[in-house]
Amino acid sequence: MIKSILDNDFYKFTMQKATVNLFPRAVVKYQFINRSHTKFPDGFDKILLENIKEMSRLKLTKEEKDFLISRCYFLDPAYIDFLAGYRFDSDEVTVSCIEGNLEINIVGYWYRAIMWEVPLMALVSELYFHILGEPTLPENEIQKNAEEKMKFYESLGVRVSDFGTRRRYSYNNHDKIIQTLTKFSNKTFLGTSNVHFAQKYGVSPMGTQAHEWFMFHAAKYGFKMATTFALEHWIDIYRGDLGIALSDTFTTDLFFLHFDTKQAKLFDGVRHDSGDPIIFAQKTINHYKSLGIDPTTKSIVFSDSLTPDKVKEIRDFCSEKIRFSFGIGTNFTNDVGVTPLNIVIKMTEAKPEGRGWVNTIKLSDEETKHTGDPETIDLCKRVIENH
Prior knowledge:
The chain has helices at about 10-20, 45-55, 60-70, 75-85, 110-115, 115-130, 140-155, 170-180, 195-200, 210-220, 225-240, 250-260, 260-265, 275-290, 310-320, 330-335, 375-385; strands at about 25-35, 95-100, 100-110, 160, 190, 205, 245, 270, 300, 325-330, 345-350, 360.
């Protein structure tokens, strides 16, 4: 079900390079979170483990390596050679399923363990629907729906990307969806977060960094300094490339307190992933104006549970105020007539070099998306209130 080592989100590779360079001794823990409290069938853990062990056979092919060299110039040859030697190690993952409650834990060096999250979630989703055997829409209707959405986005004059690997219905469905999306010009379809499909269809891989980048920095440097150090380290590694900053790990308000003139000018824009998108857009516009920066020279990438109606609402508000694009996930890759799983895998603890284990949390703009130890979440809230 995972057919390539590149069958993963692009930001996993960009962050892996950064961890190799900056934090090679850091150790982390991740945990599977079942937000919808879905019950999994008996024996699911055994089937999942079999598929996890199969992933150890994956390795970078010559064609994939050539693609990374030609399309991703900011990933240097030393990193790509490292990736060529990387193999998934199933000993880093433990799985159990008791009375339908699926538990997955990952422990390892951050530069290694970082690669598990997205393919594991894709495996869980595909295996669940495969075993459940629920009827879906006919394949031609699924593709027709995707094509109609793209025609609608084209009529709006907006640009969209596929961000749907982690909760896709299946690999094959994802493949068919990308085939459909590539029928549209790059004025409408920008690319995909999935590097394997980017290589297969000759489109751009999309993404920069995820919440865990900021979560780890909080474990190492504290909540007050996490955003500043996370952004500065990103600048140190990528020197202005990959310039979309994720904004909501410890709330957007705290992010903008630290997103100063230097960073606001160096980064091309920000990504929205929780909370009201219109309120976020206005805050972003106001922040750029407060720094003397023309918002129409900057971008917002919206990526939170997007649907065609929500995309239109955001487009209508943002037009002529700021640049914008959309990363669309489950609404592309799991719109097949079943209810998609509401699952995530998040970093829960980190052990930076020279320190013991520290709890890691995400305090997003939407309370239902908070993750981590409740006491640490409360601590973060108090720090923010007094900042």
